[in-house]
């Protein structure tokens, strides 16, 4: 119920006059407001601090402590006030919730104390407004983490029927999920390290043998290194193929950066295999070996930080581009100046402007190798200006990149958090909406039951049903919705019944199956039309044979059944209609002891009168399955057809 | 930084400098606090008692602290009463019916005047109000298209899950029925007189006009 806007209900009801001229049916009667009490101030004494508010303010949220009759427990007769022995500071924000409709979380409060207060006053924390909700959840999470032991979070959302491929992919992506995955993770890491070290050591000159001069180890122990290389490449190839197999979208996997790195890492080896001993391309072959160093990038799978670094660089592309551009400008300017300054001096290394580039770069980055130094005074002056400005130009973009990195890193952490909260929030909204819709349908059940009970006149049932007294606000809101139903001559149903109806209309093949609106018992006309359709296939599916015996006239079977409790319980029962499902659905009913089934078969007076309209007495125990003669008199006997007993179980 | 970005930045700075007036205007707009006329005046203009006006205003001000409702807030509020369907179209028509001076917002006076007619007015006034609601372009005639819009808006509020299942042509059929009843001279439009005449002869409608009298 939109209790936050309860104040607008009178307006919405008044505006309903706009429907009246359009409606074809008469409107239902409005609920009376019997309590003609004036709005009064009530005093809430919370540990000595007195708060005052209107009664109607508190009545806005009838399912909390202060809004319901639960507060009567705290009423103090002598002082005529409600006394609560709770924290007055926290109570402030709770009372503000009633006033404004928004619950705020005061940041200085301890999270568990606040939670306790909310629980005491019957307010669910999900109502906390957007401004404070994130803070609240963060604090709550921190608290939980602190209290929890260091057990590993069970992130194992293992769906029961995940096939082998999906398991493998998950193992690859999250190595912590299973031991095998962890082993695989470390093995590949080890081999990457081995491969990189091999490449490095290959070029180190080993000790000279007797007759040969120093040669790198690679050439000395060719076979050993070749074997090592082969082993590594095999492992990498196997890993790549496995990933390729397990990937949910192979095409996307092949385009991803990591897989390209994998390919580039292992390709040189295969190319080398293919074209050995070919002198022409041996130069190119040597170059290819350079690419083996890319294997080190495979480590980025093992390190989140590396990945973020790479992503940062990608995202800072514009800043890096600017850095490069401005550097280039500065280099060209200073190189030109230096060249012309040093042109005069003899034996100057500054032979051309491009040659001066090297000097400029080395100077601007404050490296200062010293292989090129200016000799003229002008050159020295400009050289010093160059080095000073170099510091500035280099220092500028670096903080940008650093801050980008830090931002992206934290963003990474927060993105997951926000995604989870968003899902929860949407779920909340959906639940609230369906809750209010369900409340209306629920009250319709109760209302209909009340009517029926008046018909049958069972007193205690009536009392039991009206136990759940509905607030005036709710009843007015429901009346409003009821008026809308009458205006449009359609009724609200909940999702499941709607889908069932759709299904039935799709399945209808016999004309005999289609019940018409007019064919039901007049006494329960308004109540039962909704439920009627659900039971229509019931007799059909259970008695295909008997149907065939009926002649042409339109059979109209309407099994009307009222069951209190949510209609959700029926979903299970639809599939196997005639079996014991009745009991199961019965169990689900909250107070479902009333069963009234009315079948009227107003076939034209042919020889196949199948029906008496039987009005079964309300009864408590579940009906037995139709294999035994049901005590609930929902039987239709064909008179002329002899012993054709059509038994229809009452659901 | 590219030249483009430099330009945009400088443009923004220029705009900010030169538009201090508009900033002030914005502040002013957001700080509009509509204050309604005094209680006595409203009491005289409407049929509500002082107490009732107090209650109404408290509720109104609670939801709209600034004192006026704009169309979006109005749609939001009205939609909360009809969770299963989409009430925004009908709320739009309602808003236009309440916003008598057509300034895009409903102040407390508009609100209370409308309510006074709906809850305390004579049957004639109520029917007048309903006619005004249906007549979207306020030209004094209800055409079939206007009625169809209204009808669709009403049916939209029912949502999808209804019994019997809502069909495409249900609103149109309903409009046909309505016109058959109301359009006496069969000229395709319903005038105010036809409307009021016809409604006064219809018992159901007459009875339902008195339905919400005890709302406050």
| Mean pLDDT across all amino acids of chain A | 72
Largest interface by Cβ-Cβ < 8 Å = A-B, 63 and 62 residues
Query: Would you tell me the overall average pLDDT of chain B?
Result: 79
Care to count the β-strands of chain B?
5
Name the shape of chain B in a single word. globular
Helix content of chain A: 40-55%
Biased composition (Low complexity) (chain A): 512-521
Protein name (chain A): Potassium voltage-gated channel subfamily D member 3
GO molecular function, one term (chain A): A-type (transient outward) potassium channel activity
Membrane topology (chain A): Multi-pass membrane protein
Key phrases:
A: 651 residues, mainly alpha, Potassium Channel Kv1.1, Chain A, Four Helix Bundle (Hemerythrin (Met), subunit A), Helix Hairpins, four-stranded mixed β-sheet, three-stranded antiparallel β-sheet, 25 helices, elongated, B: mainly alpha, Recoverin, domain 1, 2 domains, two-stranded antiparallel ribbon, 5 strands
Q: Care to describe what's here?
A:
- The complex is a heterodimer of chains A (651) and B (216).
- With 651 residues, chain A is mainly α.
- Chain A is built from 25 helices and ten strands.
- Chain A has helices spanning 9-15, 55-59, 88-100, 111-120, 130-147, 164-173, 179-202, 217-220, 222-246, 250-255, 257-274, 279-290, 304-315, 317-342, 353-364, 377-395, 397-456, 459-465, 472-488, 495-507, 525-532, 537-542, 544-549, 570-575, 581-588, and strands spanning 41-46, 49-54, 75-76, 81-84, 491-492, 559-561, 597-599, 614-615, 635-637, 645-647.
- In chain A, the strands form three sheets. Chain A has a four-stranded mixed sheet with strand order 2-1-4-3. In chain A, strands 6-7-8 form a three-stranded antiparallel sheet. Chain A has a two-stranded antiparallel ribbon with strand order 9-10.
- In chain A, a hairpin with a 7-residue loop joins strand 9 and strand 10 (645-647).
- Mean pLDDT of chain A is 72; it is low at 149-157 and 511-651.
- In chain B, helix 8 packs across helix 11.
- Chain B has two domains: 38-120, EF-hand (Recoverin, domain 1, Orthogonal Bundle), CATH 1.10.238.10; 122-215, Orthogonal Bundle (Recoverin, domain 1), CATH 1.10.238.10.
- Chain B is mostly helical and 216 residues long.
- The chains are: A mainly alpha (651), B mainly alpha (216).
- Chains A and B meet through helix 1, helix 17, helix 19, strand 5 and helix 20 of A and helix 4, helix 6, helix 7, helix 8 and helix 9 of B.
- Strand 5 of chain A pairs antiparallel with strand 4 of chain B, so a sheet runs across the interface.
């Amino acid at each position: 119920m939109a209790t936050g806007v309860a104040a607008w209900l009178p307006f919405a009801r008044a505006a309903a006059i706009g429907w009246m001229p359009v409606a074809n049916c008469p409107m239902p009667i409005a609920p009376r407001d019997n309590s003609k009490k004036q709005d009064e101030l009530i005093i809430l004494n919370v540990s000595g601090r007195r708060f005052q508010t209107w009664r109607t303010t508190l009545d806005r949220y009838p399912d909390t402590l202060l809004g319901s009759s639960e507060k009567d427990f705290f009423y103090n007769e002598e002082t005529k006030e409600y006394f609560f022995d709770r924290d007055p500071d926290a109570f402030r924000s709770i009372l503000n919730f009633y006033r404004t409709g928004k619950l705020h979380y005061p940041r200085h409060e301890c999270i568990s104390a606040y939670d306790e207060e909310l629980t005491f006053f019957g307010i669910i924390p999900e109502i906390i407004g957007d401004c404070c909700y994130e803070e609240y959840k963060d604090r709550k999470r921190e608290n939980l983490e602190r209290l929890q032991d260091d057990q590993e979070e069970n992130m194992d959302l293992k769906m029961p029927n995940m096939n082998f491929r999906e398991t493998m992919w998950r193992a690859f992506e999250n190595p912590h999920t299973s031991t095998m995955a962890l082993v695989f993770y470390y093995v590949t890491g080890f081999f990457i390290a081995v491969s990189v070290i091999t490449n490095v050591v290959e070029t180190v000159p080993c000790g000279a043998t007797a007759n040969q001069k120093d040669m790198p180890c690679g050439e000395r122990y060719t076979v050993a290194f070749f074997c090592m290389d082969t082993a590594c490449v095999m492992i990498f190839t196997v890993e790549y193929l496995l990933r390729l197999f397990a990937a949910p979208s192979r095409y996307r996997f092949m385009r991803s950066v990591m897989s390209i790195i994998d390919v580039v890492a292992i390709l040189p080896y295969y190319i080398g295999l293919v074209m050995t001993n070919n002198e022409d391309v041996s130069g190119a072959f040597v170059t290819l070996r350079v690419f083996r160093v890319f294997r080190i990038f495979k480590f980025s799978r093992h390190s989140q930080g590396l990945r973020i670094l790479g992503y940062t660089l990608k995202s800072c592309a514009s800043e890096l581009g600017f850095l490069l551009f401005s550097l280039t400008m500065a280099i060209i300017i200073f190189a030109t100046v230096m060249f012309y300054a040093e042109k005069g001096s003899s034996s100057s290394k500054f032979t051309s402007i491009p040659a001066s580039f090297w000097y400029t770069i080395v100077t601007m980055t404050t490296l200062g190798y010293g292989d090129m130094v200016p000799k003229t005074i002008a050159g020295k002056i400009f050289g010093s200006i160059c080095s000073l400005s170099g510091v500035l130009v280099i220092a500028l973009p670096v903080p940008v990149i650093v801050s980008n990195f830090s931002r992206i890193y934290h963003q990474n952490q927060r993105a997951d958090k926000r995604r989870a909260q968003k899902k929860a929030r949407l779920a909340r909204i959906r639940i609230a909406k369906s809750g209010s819709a369900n409340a209306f349908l629920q009250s319709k059940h109760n209302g209909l039951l009340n009517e029926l009970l008046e018909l049958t006149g069972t007193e205690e049932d009536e009392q039991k049903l009206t136990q759940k007294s509905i607030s005036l606000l709710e009843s007015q809101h429901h009346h409003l919705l009821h008026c809308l139903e009458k205006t449009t001559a359609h009724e609200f149903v909940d999702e499941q019944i709607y889908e069932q109806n759709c299904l039935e209309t799709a399945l209808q093949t016999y004309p005999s199956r289609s019940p018409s609106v007019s064919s039901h018992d007049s006494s329960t006309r308004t109540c039962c039309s909704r439920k009627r359709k659900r039971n229509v296939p019931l007799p059909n599916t259970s008695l295909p044979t008997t149907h065939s015996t009926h002649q042409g006239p339109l059979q109209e079977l309407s099994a009307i059944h009222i069951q209190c409790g949510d209609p959700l319980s029926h979903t299970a029962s639809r599939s196997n209609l005639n079996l014991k499902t009745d009991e199961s659905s019965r169990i689900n009913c909250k107070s479902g002891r009333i069963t009234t089934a009315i079948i009227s078969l107003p076939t034209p007076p042919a020889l196949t009168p199948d029906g008496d309209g039987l009005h079964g007495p309300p009864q408590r125990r579940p009906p037995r399955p139709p294999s035994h003669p049901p005590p609930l008199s929902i039987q239709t006997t064909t008179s002329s057809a002899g012993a054709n007993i059509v038994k229809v179980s009452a659901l | 930084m590219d030249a483009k970005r430099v330009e945009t930045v400088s443009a923004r700075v220029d705009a900010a400098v030169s538009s201090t007036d508009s900033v002030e205007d914005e502040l002013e707009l957001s700080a509009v606090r509509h204050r309604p006329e005094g209680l006595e005046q409203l009491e005289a203009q409407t049929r509500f008692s002082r107490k009732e006006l107090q209650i109404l205003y408290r509720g109104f001000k609670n939801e709209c602290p600034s004192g006026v409702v704009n169309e979006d807030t109005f749609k939001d509020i009205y939609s909360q009463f009809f969770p299963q369907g989409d009430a925004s179209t009908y709320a739009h028509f309602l808003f236009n019916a309440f916003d008598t001076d057509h300034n895009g917002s409903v102040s407390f006076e508009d609100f209370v005047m409308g309510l006074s007619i709906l809850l305390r007015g004579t049957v004639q006034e109520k029917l007048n109000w309903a006619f005004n609601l249906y007549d979207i372009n306020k030209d004094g005639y209800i055409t079939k298209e206007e009625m169809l819009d209204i009808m669709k808006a009403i049916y939209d509020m029912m949502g999808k899950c209804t019994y019997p299942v809502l069909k495409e042509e249900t609103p149109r059929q309903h409009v046909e029925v309505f016109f058959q009843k109301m359009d006496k001279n069969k000229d395709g439009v319903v005038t105010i007189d036809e409307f009021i005449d016809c409604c006064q002869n219809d018992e159901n409608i007459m009875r339902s006009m008195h339905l919400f009298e005890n709302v406050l």
